[in-house]
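Take one protein record:
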Amino acid sequence: MSTITKIRQAIQAIGDFFQQIIQFISIAATRAFSPSDDNYPATGLQPYDGDPAVKSKDY
């Protein structure tokens, strides 16, 4: 293999590496800023039915 071929392969490998990095970042940004794809049921506002706070305890 000649020296020029090795240099071309090295440059190609560096280019592929940067392309993979850019693709990884763009996929992450697309997922972060895309609309939600959750399929939760629309339950609306739910009242709180818990116990009232005890006034004798100081936190």
